[in-house]
Amino acid sequence: MSDATLAVVLASGGMDSCVATAWAANRYRLAMLHVNYGQQTEAKELECFGRQVDHFRPVAHLAVDAPHFRQIGGSSLTDARIAMPEDDTPGQVPSTYVPFRNATLLAIAVAWAEVLGAGRIVIGAVEPDAPGYPDCRPAFFEAANRLVDLGTRPETHIRIETPLIGLTKAEVVRMGDDLAAPLGLTWSCYRREDTPCNACASCRRRAEAFRDAGVPDPLVP
To answer: How far is residue 21 CA from its own chain's centroid?
Structure first.
């Protein structure tokens, strides 16, 4: 039987998932899950995950590897030979899209949730922050919930929740500020692990979001 008070939270080390974790912490006991998938800033994101684990103190935490994404390629996040965009082109899937990544992340989360007996999975997907990403649409997560029902034990009842899905990036920052989420323990840059490049699309979205929210970015001196 699934425990609706326990949630597996997908925690990338980034800002959106950190805010989603803070949201979940007000509602559930937490189990935090991180997936290394061969991204260029993998080590930094794992470091941020560890620091967020220390902050939130979940009942369980787990970091797993999914190296096949780098082997498959097709994304500028996992293949340095593909140019990293500095802006998003409306109506196009950007090169930062990792093919079918969220389906794999959710599959891992569902498997762990079923073992733990967790009744919820929380993911910080934000549709406006992922222009063109097909696996960040509400319809994708609705289908994923149906798949979970079909592919788990009859006594298992797991629900995927996307608390940020319709928010703008600035609204995510405001929510994080309201929830006292540790935004200083997050990383957004796609290119560098020492200091943000301030040029990639993710850095630009982060800077615009904090500016529009009227909140200072704790990563900016």
So the answer is: 10
Instruction: Identify the CA nearest to 193 among candidates 88, 45, 12, 90.
Output: 45
CATH code for position 111: 3.40.50.620
- 221 lies in a domain? no
The conformation of residue 61, written as its DSSP 8-state character, comes to E
Rg (CA), the chain: 16
Q: In which domain, by residue range, is 139 found?
A: 3-213
Query: Do 135 and 170 contact (CB within 8 A), yes or no?
Result: no
Assigned domain for 146 exists: yes
Within 10 angstroms of residue 70's Cβ, the number of other Cβ atoms is: 18
Structure tokens at 185: 């323990």
**Tokens 């006594």 sit on residue:** 155
Rounded-to-integer distance, Cα 10 and Cα 85, Å? 25
Burial code (b: 16+ CB inside 10 Å, e: under 16) for 25-55 equals beebebbbbbbbbbbbbbebbbebbbbbbeb
Give 172-198 pLDDT, tens digit per residue: 999 999 999 999 999 999 999 999 999
Q: What is the pLDDT of residues 131-145, one digit of tens each?
A: 679 999 999 999 999
